[in-house]
Amino acid sequence: MILRFQFLSAFLLLFISSFVSQASAQDTPEARTEPWIQDPASYVNAFIGTVNVGHVFPGATLPHGMIKAGLDTDSPGNHAGYDGDPQYNATGFSQLHDTGTGGSIPLSNFKLWAYASCTSFEKCPSGIVQRKLKRKTRDDGSPDDYASPGYFSTNLTNDIRVELTATRRTALHRYTFPAGTAHPRILVDIANDGQRSATYPQVLIDQVGLESEGGGYQSGRVRGGAEFAASFGPGRYKAYVCVTFKGEGYELGKPTEYGAYSNNYPVRGARNGEQVYLSSGSEHGALLEFIPSPSSAVTSILARVGVSFISTNQACSTAEEEIQDYDFERVKSEARAQWNDVLGRVKVRFGDSAKRTTETERELVEHFYSSLYRTHIAPADYTGENPHWNSTEPYYDSLYCNWDTYRTLYPLMAMHDPVTFSKIIRGMIDIQKHEGWLPECRGATVKHYMQGGSNADPILADFLVKYPPSSSSFSSLGVSPSDLYAALLRDAEDQPPNWNLQGREVDVWKELGYIAQSFASVGGANTKWVSRTLEYAFDDFAIAQVAKVLGKTEDAEKYMKRAQNFLNVWNPDVTVPGGPDFVKGMMQTHAFFTSLKPRFANGTWNHTDPRHCSIHDPEKATCFLNAARRDGFYEASPIVYSQYVPQDSAKLIELQGGAEAFINRLDWIFENLYFDVTNEPSHQMPFMHHYANRPGLSTSRSRKVLEEHFDLTKDGLPGNDDSGAMGSYAAFSLLGMYPLPATRQLLISSSYFPVVEFVNPVYNTTTTFKTTGSGIFVKGVTIDGEPWRSTCFIEWAVFEKGSVVELELSEDESLGCGEGGLPPSISTGGYA
Ligand SMILES: *[C@@H]1O[C@H](CO)[C@@H](O)[C@H](O)[C@H]1NC(C)=O
Ligand SMILES: *[C@@H]1O[C@H](CO)[C@@H](O)[C@H](O)[C@H]1NC(C)=O
Ligand SMILES: *[C@@H]1O[C@H](CO)[C@@H](O)[C@H](O)[C@H]1NC(C)=O
Ligand SMILES: *[C@@H]1O[C@H](CO)[C@@H](O)[C@H](O)[C@H]1NC(C)=O
Ligand SMILES: *[C@@H]1O[C@H](CO)[C@@H](O)[C@H](O)[C@H]1NC(C)=O
Ligand SMILES: *[C@@H]1O[C@H](CO)[C@@H](O)[C@H](O)[C@H]1NC(C)=O
């Protein structure tokens, strides 16, 4: 709480200091020191959102790497393994994770653990409960953990220091034992995945001490695997591991003792050569003991950990390919270089004054790069690890879930990382080709539950409208427009057997133009018919946008029409109990009915209290997938969903009584805490004043949301990071922008940074946003020196061209968007 307050006041200070620095900028042309431009990785605070419910993964990974090596804890919130609260015990260092997710604990597979002082091999506590212990803490009480992009380290209370780094499919661990350790030992845990869901665990200890074939695996090699439960879906997956060891600065030689363990009982191997253990126990793995370094007081042992979703042999061969030399510092610095490459494509600057960076500015930079960093952890590049079919296309997993990420994460990626974006798109299309429908939520190679519609649709559309086939670099990206379009049409036209996992309930959608309560036959506890109606409408809008780009005029018309089906669930008569008169009209459920015409033969709307799922819900209901009360809305109230029509905000204004009533309604929503920053359907709301010609209100509101709900502490996120969705939301808020997915338009406001540069490696352009004047409200915009008609939105063309967009600022909150400057909506002429 105190930290949040400090951060808030830091922002206020910035406004003052930025006015001062603006004034002196003209006099001092000398470039100031902005060290993060060279090394943005050093401004990443990986621990934001690692306590409470952020579930952020702070360990070692490449951008979108499959390996996410990290510390696991016994925290109840260990969805990403880690918990930044030192009261929780460390339980191991596992290789795969997700970030910011809910559901059950995902992917905490194959934990390694080291011992400095067991009294004997058999007495080493191998069980996860018996072995766990706390991390050391610093003087301020924080755990002695450190993280930077591509690297993680911690000191445990048994005096062992653990360091982790990663390539795409291989982790490298370094265990440094306390001085005088006579029997350094390392355990490889095959079964504990975070959920204890393993079946058929298998562990092999190979070639110990065999001198043939070039020495075999002199220092032992542990291979293993098992079948595990998915996190947010009904499926199970198989994963395999291959671990080899090397002494740092000395010849490790063969293990002095080794064997497998079941539960808390290690059993020493009886013979040389290969051992195979099979077990149905919930705790299973291998334990090896090595000689300490003969020459130095401290012993460091490297463990190279390959992981595969195909086979143990593949885990071994990729590990050998990716990290032949066991050179920890090399792997670590190459990982950091990859991070600096991607983070460095968005450069934030404070202008040209020679003034030193203030603490407030430093914090803003830290906030920005930490947020941007979190948008590049998931999805993960599992290319070569898809167990379901062979393909030469990329395979990305940890799409957890598209519902969370389509709004802001992919539009941000489109601006600076189009190559990764194109590979994710190709992977999605390949999934559609083999499974029939585009993926929605996916983790550990299996389908998870739907949250909304088929939300790959707006992601594919966002890519294609920004990188159309007519653009010069399109062919280099390897995306087939016809395959992309076919994949979209499948979602739009063919109902899958289980639309709760992929695709949509389109038969009803096509027949009625909305999802009626009675038609939900599958779909888990909460079948979310109203929110799905709104999502399906947006999905069809996305498809219409693609149809336009591809010159399919009839389809474009058809889907643009379907995009207006949100009107079918608008009930103009509903008000909020105890609420003001001007908040009238809500998205609502249609009750059971049988005949199509007239549409509501017996005139029934079913009523959902608009406060349902909000903090004011008298029934205290939740709208999660397993919600007990089923009222048709997912993870947000009818009040929130009644503002959720990104494709036609102008129509919402009309339905809600015009601009003034709309603004009053938004104010009422914020003031009464119906805006819910923890879930994405609310995210556009601060910027919706743009559509009512009051962009200044958006600026104020969006800054307030950022400053109240996000900060740099471990508790700095309002909820789950949702695979980086919250990170992208915070990044856009800092940049003073909000994207309209599947369009070529971007809502603009003022950034906290006077200069922002986007480097786009596909267009080979740098697009610069600059502010002049004082204040935070946009008064005028020029693009490449020419006046631009709107202060509320800009066109994607500025990124294609590498334009300079100059925003003239003012202290006047009441300014409008300019003549003809309102952002587009379907009902006011549509999208260019
Ligand atoms: C950490 O482990 C110790 C020893 O098993 C246990 O007493 C303690 O409760 C654990 N801490 C938490 C927060 O569970
Ligand atoms: C752990 O201990 C080492 C050696 O004492 C120290 O250099 C390091 O900063 C400590 N913290 C972490 C997180 O590694
Ligand atoms: C992929 O190809 C390999 C090599 O031909 C084969 O062994 C494997 O079974 C194939 N995998 C699938 C899922 O078809
Ligand atoms: C209205 O919704 C409630 C709760 O979901 C349900 O029990 C009821 O059957 C519905 N009524 C009609 C007429 O559809
Ligand atoms: C509406 O009509 C349907 C079909 O005739 C019927 O099942 C349902 O009970 C009717 N609802 C009401 C409230 O009359
Ligand atoms: C990118 O642009 C720069 C400067 O405009 C130019 O020097 C370079 O050759 C271009 N690179 C490519 C790959 O087109």
TrEMBL record:
<dbReference type="InterPro" id="IPR012939">
    <property type="entry name" value="Glyco_hydro_92"/>
</dbReference>
<dbReference type="InterPro" id="IPR008928">
    <property type="entry name" value="6-hairpin_glycosidase_sf"/>
</dbReference>
<dbReference type="GO" id="GO:0005975">
    <property type="term" value="P:carbohydrate metabolic process"/>
</dbReference>
<feature type="signal peptide">
    <location>
        <begin position="1"/>
        <end position="25"/>
    </location>
</feature>
<dbReference type="InterPro" id="IPR005887">
    <property type="entry name" value="GH92_a_mannosidase_put"/>
</dbReference>
<dbReference type="GO" id="GO:0000224">
    <property type="term" value="F:peptide-N4-(N-acetyl-beta-glucosaminyl)asparagine amidase activity"/>
</dbReference>
<feature type="domain" description="Glycosyl hydrolase family 92">
    <location>
        <begin position="314"/>
        <end position="810"/>
    </location>
</feature>
<dbReference type="GO" id="GO:0005634">
    <property type="term" value="C:nucleus"/>
</dbReference>
<dbReference type="GO" id="GO:0006516">
    <property type="term" value="P:glycoprotein catabolic process"/>
</dbReference>
<protein>
    <recommendedName>
        <fullName>Glycoside hydrolase family 92 protein</fullName>
    </recommendedName>
</protein>
<dbReference type="GO" id="GO:0030246">
    <property type="term" value="F:carbohydrate binding"/>
</dbReference>
<dbReference type="InterPro" id="IPR014718">
    <property type="entry name" value="GH-type_carb-bd"/>
</dbReference>
<dbReference type="GO" id="GO:0005829">
    <property type="term" value="C:cytosol"/>
</dbReference>
<dbReference type="Pfam" id="PF07971">
    <property type="entry name" value="Glyco_hydro_92"/>
</dbReference>
<dbReference type="Pfam" id="PF17678">
    <property type="entry name" value="Glyco_hydro_92N"/>
</dbReference>
<keyword id="KW-0732">Signal</keyword>
<feature type="domain" description="Glycosyl hydrolase family 92 N-terminal">
    <location>
        <begin position="43"/>
        <end position="308"/>
    </location>
</feature>
<dbReference type="InterPro" id="IPR050883">
    <property type="entry name" value="PNGase"/>
</dbReference>
<dbReference type="InterPro" id="IPR041371">
    <property type="entry name" value="GH92_N"/>
</dbReference>
